[in-house]
Amino acid sequence: MASILYLLFLLFLFSFEAAESLQVGSRSILRAISGPDPPDAAVDLNITNFDSVLSDSPASFAIVEFFAHWCPACRNYKPHYEKVARLFNGREAVHPGIILMTRVDCALKINTKLCDKFSVGHYPMLLWGPPSKFASGSWEPKQKSEIIAIDDGRTADRLLNWINKKMGRHIVRAVYDVEEATSSAFDIILDHKMINSVTRAPLIGFLQLLVAHHPSRRCRKGSAEVLVNFDEFWPSDLWASNKQEAIVSRGKDAIQSLRICGKEAPRGYWIFCRGSKNETRGFSCGLWVLLHSVSVRIEDGESQFAFRSTCDFIHNFFICQECRQHFHEMCSSITSPFKKTADFALWLWTAHNQVNERLMKEEADLKTGDPKFPKMIWPPKQLCPSCYLSPPSRRKDGSMSIDWNRDEVFKFLVGYYGKMLVSSNKDSFLEEEKRGSSLADEVVTSTNVVAVPLGAALGIALASCAFGALACFWRSRQKNRKQRRPRS
């Protein structure tokens, strides 16, 4: 442990000259490491590296885009292709290791034979298949092969749909919307100036939950950075200061430039949660998916912390007053602490169904529901037959009576919101425990929190290890310098 800290210290010393001019509380550390703009995510290939890159790739599938740099349609398509590529390629990828997304410029003479091998007849042309089949392989349109042409990928949305259908799951769609919901939630908090002496602690608790268990890697990373710099954004003695308004404004500007899920997170791009009308689904759907995905990722010992953090977050930061009050009542009805992951996951599932049942009646009376996506009791029987012990029936008051197999419901929730929303959530936690515990302690103490569950602490350490150590060390040094500075 001492040797690792010493290496981090040496790394800090080498970067100190550059860091000295950067402001604490901004994206300074992250920018110093990553640079201001992300590079292209799709990997550029040519005849010299095509076989070696693809044969060495651990990805299950590869997409190769054949294009020409002079082609206007190819230039217009690039932002769409890059949007999808960032999901799978690079350090910020939400789903690293699943699909290797590459491109080949057929306008370069060096690639003429390579493009001929794959019968490139138009631009852009996309091929899909196992990486090993591309390496030292070829493709003919009428030839039976594991390499196939993507016939409907001309926009990011359509390419994602094609990938999801091919892989038989909706991972990408749901993670997009979870990122969107996370970003939107924090925009609302900042725009409505909802952080104060009362709400400060609940926000810290929810951030700890996101750092440890958000299904998106870049949201975990962004949440960790906000948590690391929280005292700089909103000091604990802020509300006793006569400069409160200026400090709040500075914190808002800093965190908005930070972007909690990174600047590449989709905005206004609901896919899984898109309604048939602009005013339906969207944010509320995305927020529910986020909460469910977190609920099945926590460890048994974290269930009460996750329950309390979720209840406090909704109570303090969900802007719909009636919805907030209903959720608070459901939270207040719990008298015994949760002990197992299933306890919290099943409570949240029950709460969601109660909300849906209430809204079904209201939307039917007021005709405000989404006709293509009506509220329903979840999961429907066709999606999880084993979840039902007997056919549903209606009570005299019109409400649904269902005899649930709760063990099967929990298995379904884990599969649907857990395995289908995989994003490197458990990045070698056990192997990294010793290496990350010190950093976790520093992040925790910097935000004045008394106790954090083990999983959350480890999540904080791991999600921020690339930049958090430098940030923590830098902040510690700055605080020491402030303490040594003579008071006027």
Structure, described:
- This protein folds into two domains: 39-154, Glutaredoxin (3-Layer(aba) Sandwich), CATH 3.40.30.10; 171-417, ERV/ALR sulfhydryl oxidase domain (Four Helix Bundle (Hemerythrin (Met), subunit A), Up-down Bundle).
- It is globular and about 70 Å long.
- It has a five-stranded mixed β-sheet with strand order 1-3-2-4-5, sandwiched between helices.
- It contains 20 helices and seven strands.
- It has helices at 2-20, 28-34, 50-56, 72-88, 112-117, 131-134, 156-167, 171-191, 200-213, 217-228, 230-233, 244-258, 283-295, 303-317, 321-332, 341-366, 406-418, 429-446, 454-463, 468-484; strands spanning 43-45, 61-67, 99-105, 125-129, 148-149, 393-394, 400-401.
- It has 488 residues and is mostly helical.
- Strand 2 (61-67), helix 4 and strand 3 (99-105) form a beta-alpha-beta unit.
- Keywords: Disulfide bond, FAD, Flavoprotein, Glycoprotein, Membrane, Oxidoreductase, Redox-active center, Secreted, Signal, Transmembrane, Transmembrane helix.
Helix/strand order: HHEHEHEHEHEHHHHHHHHHHEEHHHH
Instruction: Please state roughly what percent of the residues sit in beta strands, choosing from under 5%, 5-15%, 15-25%, 25-35%, 35-45% or over 45%.
Output: 5-15%
Specify the helix fraction band. Answer: 40-55%
Count of DSSP-assigned helices: 20
Give a count of the beta strands, DSSP E runs of length 2 or more: 7
The structure class reads mainly alpha
Mean pLDDT: 76
CATH superfamily of the largest domain: ERV/ALR sulfhydryl oxidase domain
Q: List the domain count as a whole number.
A: 2
Protein name: Sulfhydryl oxidase
Pfam families: Evr1_Alr, Thioredoxin
InterPro entries: ERV/ALR_sulphydryl_oxid_sf, ERV/ALR_sulphydryl_oxidase, Sulfhydryl_oxidase, Thioredoxin-like_sf, Thioredoxin_CS, Thioredoxin_domain
Keywords: Disulfide bond, FAD, Flavoprotein, Glycoprotein, Membrane, Oxidoreductase, Redox-active center, Secreted, Signal, Transmembrane, Transmembrane helix
